[in-house]
Amino acid sequence: MTALVLGPHLRHVSHHTATVWVETDRPCEVRVVNQEHGLDASSRTFTAHGHHYGLVEIDGLAPEARIPYEIVIDGETVWPESGSGFPPSQIRTLREDGGLRISFGSCRRSPGTVDLFGYDALAAFSDRLRTGGDAVTWPDVLLMVGDQVYADELTEEMRAFIKGRRAAGEPPDGEVADYEDYTHLYKLAWHDDAAVRWLLSTVPTFTVFDDHDIRDDWNTSHTWRKEMWAQPWWKDRITGGIGSYWIYQHLGNMSPQDRASDPTFKALRTASDTTGDAGAVLDEFAEKADKQPDSTRWSYAHDWGNTRLIVVDSRCSRLLTPDRRGMLDDDEFDWLDSQCQGGMDHLLIASSLPYLLPMAIHHAESWNEAVAGGAWGKRAAGVGEKIRQAADLEHWAAFEKSFRDVAADVIAVGRGERGPAPASISFLSGDIHYSYLARVTEAGTQSKVSQIVCSPLRNPLIGKFRLANRIAYSRAAGGPFRLLAKLAKVPVPPIRWRMTDGPWFHNAIATVELSGRDCNVVWETPWDGGKLNEMGRATIV
């Protein structure tokens, strides 16, 4: 009997369509079925590196549909699992009334003990939906904004798997090495916790990667890239990381129309059908995506009612040459610029890295970029590069031109220069392992502009790191670092903002609630044995 290895995952949805992703243990036909509702959609799997993946696309659904479904493989029902204790998984299409609830977070370590990582906000969220049923309000979308897996900080379970594959101390010691390692990493993150597995089967999920999905400080600078490609093990690592991300995460972010026109998806299916395994095609694509960032686009945008969600890749698409630095390459920025338009009630821009940081951190990163770029001479530039990598100074503020370019777009949209101004423009981010709300105070916009951060889902800061960030969050800490930036000839930021809510250093999940022209956000944290409790709430507009 063919078995499910991972999934089912409910991925891209619209008002009338849905996508279900699975991994199986052999080639097969995958069907998504509900006889009562006349649902029967199917797809053949494709194969890469000996792993088999199915992607079933469903069309013709009603808005706000809630259709329980089964997964049937080669005539055998494999989902739901008997005796699981969980409600039936449902296909959940979006509402037509313009309302939208997006729950989001980042940075989730799994597995591991409560003593190490605390209670899992994602599992707690799942438990509330499972036990509350119709008595609780469900999200329309779950957005995971980075570090869904940790490829460089391994649990004992992952170390045991690697021990069975390669000799102790073989590089990269203590990290994943290739595509096969990554497949097990995803299984540990999304299969072995029954609550999370059920959640991903019944809530539409979108993702974008951050550094730990590949490696800490991924693409910090041109120097970092040179150092990594000099390592003999890096090619297998980067192709395995990007290739597995494309299959396990990015493939489900695309709409059916995007997938139908995607050359990589077509090439993989063709190679799988003709040769039996598309691993070589996937590796070639992944290596090119790393070495030529403008060869593929990881960012994506979806319009849902009167809300536009833009998810920006702030890792793989960076412009990093000896002469130029950009958070996005030219092609990626042109795409983002084209997506930043008015005419919506709400514009959401998701980036794994916060766009608006606490002022002390923002000025420190902009100062460091200038120094590493030669503002204080060649010797200081070398020191600046070492500080950048040691202190993870590689957010939007460390790409000062990119920061200013995005600010120009946001200001133009918020002033109504690109169509009627939205009520709100909100950045959704994670990465920094604490949560907060920052509000833009001086931009001359009709729109309310804010930065909403929720991090971590499960990987809290401890000790001195928490203390350092709490100090950096304070308003008084910004002055000295602004002086440093000024001495390095960094111009004043084109917008001003202040931190208004937080910081909260607990594991957390946030939900943005959009209704008409209203926008609110609530942060929740797992306490009392892992039950969610409200941590903070704010009205954006």
SSE topology:
Blueprint: E1 4-13, E2 18-24, E3 29-34, E4 39-44, E5 46-48, E6 51-58, E7 66-68, E8 70-73, E9 76-79, E10 90-92, E11 100-105, H1 114-117, H2 121-132, E12 141-144, H3 156-163, H4 179-190, H5 194-202, E13 205-207, H6 222-229, H7 234-248, H8 256-260, H9 263-275, H10 279-291, E14 300-304, E15 307-312, E16 319-320, E17 325-326, H11 330-339, E18 346-351, H12 359-372, H13 378-391, H14 400-414, E19 424-429, E20 435-442, E21 448-453, H15 463-473, H16 478-487, E22 496-504, E23 509-515, E24 518-527, E25 531-539
Parallel strand pairs: 11-12, 12-13, 15-18, 18-19, 19-21
Antiparallel strand pairs: 1-2, 2-6, 3-4, 3-8, 5-6, 7-10, 8-9, 11-23, 14-15, 16-17, 20-21, 20-22, 23-24, 24-25
Helix pairs in contact: 2-5, 3-4, 4-7, 7-10, 9-10, 12-13, 12-16
Domain PhoD-like phosphatase metallophosphatase: 139-226
InterPro entries: DUF7800, Metallo-depent_PP-like, PhoD-like_MPP, PhoD-like_sf
Domain DUF7800: 1-91
Shape: globular
The main sheet orders its strands as 14-15-18-19-21-20-22
Q: How helix-rich are the residues, as a percent range?
A: 25-40%
Structural class: alpha+beta
Any idea of the CATH class of the domain at 112-139 and 298-541?
Alpha Beta
Computed CA radius of gyration, to the nearest angstrom: 23 Å
CATH superfamily name of the domain at 112-139 and 298-541? GpdQ, beta-strand dimerisation domain
Low-confidence stretches: none
| CATH fold label of the domain at 112-139 and 298-541 | Transcription Regulator spoIIAA
Head-to-tail CA distance between termini:
54 Å
Give average pLDDT, whole number.
96
Q: Report the strand count.
A: 25
Question: Please, how many helices?
Answer: 16
Pfam families: DUF7800 (PF25077), PhoD (PF09423)
Domain PhoD-like phosphatase metallophosphatase: 139-226
Domain DUF7800: 1-91
Protein name: Alkaline phosphatase family protein
